[in-house]
Amino acid sequence: MANKVTASIVPTASAINSRLADASYYDCYAIAVPNDGRSALGYFLTAISNTPAWVNSLMTLRNKTVLLFGLKDLGGMGNLDAAKKDSDYLAGDRVGIFTLISNTPNEVLLGDSDKHLDVVLSIYKNSASPIDDCSISVTTVVHTHNLLGKAYMIPVTPLHKLIAPAVLARVIS
Fold this sequence. Notes:
The chain is an alpha+beta fold and 173 residues long. The chain has one domain: Alpha-D-Glucose-1,6-Bisphosphate, Chain A, domain 4 (2-Layer Sandwich). The chain has helices at 40-49, 53-66, 147-168; strands spanning 6-7, 25-33, 94-95, 98-104, 107-113, 117-126, 134-144.
């Protein structure tokens, strides 16, 4: 089994598909991993708990910069309560820089909204059986609201294409 992150199509059974219409931006990345019984959220918690230092540095820079434009400081990717299990999270809880929208064993939707855009992230666990390997897909969907959102996405888009695969690769850490 190769543990390489690759660009992927959005899983057809994913709930995120309903959010693709009129999206300003979306992408999907996937990785094959051992199916060790973790939920989709469990895989995501592993990934963001092991976020590369360079990604955290970029988040710090992002948070300081966007305050000048009246946008939210989202904090750090791995800002988690280490004692909290994946099964303890409820809709509305913060999970790193995102808010939990919905959570099932095979898919978690997380998001954030601000005056310039809405972003929703799907972590989708696709497995044929509980003992086979599975794939974890991360799909990001962005809807911009205004010119600030469009301008924000100019530097974010190429960075996101580096950050998403780098963080997803950490699900096997």
